[in-house]
Amino acid sequence: xxxxxxxxxxxxxxxxxxxxxxxxxxxxxxxxxxxxxxxxxxxxxxxxxxxxxxxxxxxxxxxxxxxxxxxxxxxxxxxxxxxxxxxxxxxxxxxxxxxxxxxxxxxxxxxxxxxxxxxxxxxxxxxxxxxxxxxxxxxxxxxxxxxxxxxxxxxxxxxxxxxxxxxxxxxxxxxxxxxxxxxxxxxxxxxxxxxxxxxxxxxxxxxxxxxxxxxxxxxxxxxxxxxxxxxxxxxxxxxxxxxxxxxxxxxxxxxxxxxxxxxxxxxxxxxxxxxxxxxxxxxxxxxxxxxxxxxxxxxxxx
Length: 302
Description:
The protein has no helices and 27 strands. The protein has strands spanning about 1-5, 15-20, 25-35, 35-40, 45-50, 55-60, 65-75, 85-90, 100-105, 135-140, 150, 155-160, 165, 165-170, 175-180, 190, 200, 210-215, 215-220, 225, 230, 235-240, 250, 260-265, 275, 285-290, 295-300. The strands form 8 sheets. It has a 5-stranded antiparallel sheet, with no helix packed on it. A hairpin with a 5-residue loop joins strand 14 (about 165-170) and strand 15 (about 175-180). The protein is rod-shaped. The protein starts with a strand and ends with a strand.
């Protein structure tokens, strides 16, 4: 056995190889390790074809001859692993293992750009690559960069220098609503749907922590409102007009035992006073120095 030629079929010159005289009689195998199908022209006028990714066996007297090859056709392929043709000769008494022609499975190939417009795709899978490998990408015609990318490390990027990315969801009325986007000043906008009932923030169990209610405002339903210093968990306001100057029990809606109760006379006269004590989760006691005047009461739970 003897390797008599090795060449790259993507390079068209030189386009010949010679079979030594020592291989005057026997067998010749052409291993086409490329995505380029080639045509062979022998000195006696014979021609043959070796498809891409295929090995073919030829029997005959090729010793001392020159074989001319040319590109026949090229399979559309993204990043073929190899582009090489190897010609090997064997003596007539040598055994060649295998069955010919033989398929050389070097690359799983889709011979055209994948386009599911008008069709369907059941799965997109990308396994075994280093992170971050992009396996979904889209670029708008005329743009310099991608506007959609998804990597195998779980990073989804929307938008480019030419256009802002936006996440939309369909509402119950069948309209696509902007939910999350960046404005021109790189500000982040979280937007409720057009038919908003509430924009809610929940914990991992689905418990609502806070709600943004259209026409009502922000409601904190769990936890506290934290400031740079201190926090407030609950606030309630009550309004009472004492009928006398005796101590009385009044109700509130704080839903917890208040830490602070502040009574204030809603009157222009000075010198009015009010005192509070005995706080519970539903009541407090208050005595006023003057009757018949409105008292505003602020209750706070820290």
